[in-house]
Amino acid sequence: MKRIVSTVLAGATLVGSALAADISFSYTGSNFFKSSGGSLKYDNDARTDCMALTIKNDICGVVLDFDISKGELKEDAYYGWLNFGLPMGKLKITAGSWSERRANRVNKDAGKLKDEDFELNKLGVINGTTGKDSNNVTSGNLSMLAEYDYDEGLPGNIIVRAGLTKSSWNPDVTPASTKTNSQDVADSGHIMNSGFAFEAAYHDENLLDFTFTFKSLTKHNNSFAAFISPGEKLVEGLDLTFGYTIAAVQAYDSTAKDWDKWGWEWGFDLRARYEVSEKLSFTTMHNLSSGFNDKNNVDGDTNTWVLWNMVNGTYKIADNLNAGLTLQSVIDGFDKNHSCSGAKLIASPYLAVQATERVSVTTSVRATWTDVNPKSDADATLDVTIPVIFAFSF
Question: What's the predicted TM-score (pTM) here?
Fold first, then answer.
């Protein structure tokens, strides 16, 4: 697969250089000040610098995305694609290492904010192993994906994607071994270093957007996810996504050489954004999940429930200035008796300044309370973090 990826990337780069291409570059620097001993201190370990270069035209493209974290340059994503015109429909081949999420995450107001400042969790089983981030068809791994798009004579598009993604698919394979007497080497079984992914979708911006994703990255471990978003014209000003993820999880015991206990993970997602006016909008996200957290501890009695809620209000003060407030709660630790060990609460007011068309500065004051439990005598812990995010592109 590495040869295929290298060929696609090299080909995309050469064609992009030879033909007229759109070239863009973006930089995002995230700095954090955190509470420590009653004072705010700069957290050098949390700082990240993300740089992305994109070269593309109608035929092909390539993206190189690197992060600098703790003084080290790391690859965040690198991939390239080729487009092919067919007698019926279009074909796109993409290869590289990247995350590919198609379903509508209803995060229009997020801007440069992410994680605890806006979207704490992705779609899927938020405390799961196999079902986590279920709409990410490549799972952020080295992958090769073929996409077929057909729209002739239809009000919308039918999109089908299938591919391979790097994974230890069959951990139960017999390894190579050396015989004691003859010193001959017994060959191993066929080792699969790739899992499988499939996605089918229908997109009509006026009526409906539907996405179904199937992933099997490890033998006996499969996830199925479906997400639906009504079209723009059904309810004016409303952006909505709801869906369900279910996953079969089974762990392999390498010592006993047997597939151990298994169980089911599941997650419900509901997200909505309503635009009250050109200046004011509200976003809400909710997820109820049941997962195992640890793939080595899979049993129908060990799964726990997690409930995540998020509410955001965003107001446009001026054309280049937005203010907002995001409130989130995570109630986890539900066991089979549905008892709760505590909750996590997050409040994050923020300002986003669009200094120029290509330069923005975003900052917030994030207050996080952990171990919140009215039934416990223990005090909740409060941490304060101030992110300052600078971004520009050209």
Answer: 0.86
